[in-house]
Amino acid sequence: MNKWKSKWGLALALAGTITLSSAFAAPPFKEAEETNPNPVITPIKTDEPTSYRINQLEDIAMYYYWHGGDLKQAEEEIFKGITLKGKYDVVEAAYNEAVKLDPHDVDLKISLASTQIIQKKIPEALATYQQILNLDPDNYNAHLLYGVYSKVNGDEKAYKTAIANLKRLDAHKTNEYLEKFATTETIMKTTLKTEVPDNLPQSKHAIVILGYALAEDGTMREPLIERLKVGLAAANKNPNSKIIVTGGVPKQGNTESKLMKEWLMSNGIAEGRILTEDKSTDTVENALFTTAILEKEGLKDVTLVTSASHMRRALTIFTEASDFYDKMKAKNSDRAFTNVVYLDYPSIEEAHNVTKDETMVIYRDLMRATGVWQYPDKQR
After folding, report:
1. Of 19, 96, 185, 332, which sits with the fewest C-beta atoms within 10 Å of its C-beta?
2. How many Å apart are CA 310 and CA 356, to the nearest integer?
């Protein structure tokens, strides 16, 4: 059980507001009526301890980050006077309120800035990072994130200043990040392949097919089926390769990886060739958890299969995950990555155009893959 859930559940139980068992089930929310699957938010009271109110706001933020909910209820009960258009509005509003309650807490400000980045509010996020740096001039991660998003936003002067500050704080670590940035810039120029590459390794090679969120009824959506078709072509062309299917978010008792494995088997792939990564919730975890499987199985080189719009981010994060495992194990795997994509653009020419929004998401997830959590102690 997560530490924050157990602490919150205990606090509610001791306060006598709800039973301990229901506190564990749904921390800051009352049970919704059976016809309404969304939780009803319990109004935050001003006659409760500050830490209690901050915990409530963080719990609300994390619930909406994962599940969404009743926006009108949130407007009426918690965020009066704020019009909410989507679940990340709730997350941002919750962290805004938490920051007001404890303006000294740097982690709350980092969480707020991360939510602003998710919503593509780069100037607002940069202002939040600057507040952190005003309060804590030696905060390495704040300088790092300020520099990265300044670079994405086209402000090279601010980026160079941030790098200078980072080198002052930790030159070795900063040089490692500069190498990661250079690798990322190279990956963003990768030629996307719509046909299975020839001459792939005949041993210790894996075809990794990345998942895509299931529909609410627990079935596979078109992008995932199209990725599987590409992965099947790669598997048939390379019969000695293992296949890893990824994705662990359950819907109606199914996960992406479970359905992907079943689909491949129904299309002639032997069960023994398929390895399942069923713990991940996003691309960063796809990479970290799949790399652990590669290490365990003694698999070296990888052909990634995903949508064209997703491939540059996937290659960046898988490269970082592989480098991290090499560093942790003090070795050099010299792992090679190739790609084959499901073309989800009108043309391959358009697929090779890297937008500012894509660049932002690539760098955001690179930071997460290096161990910088979006929401400290809460969510990678």
Report:
1. 332
2. 14
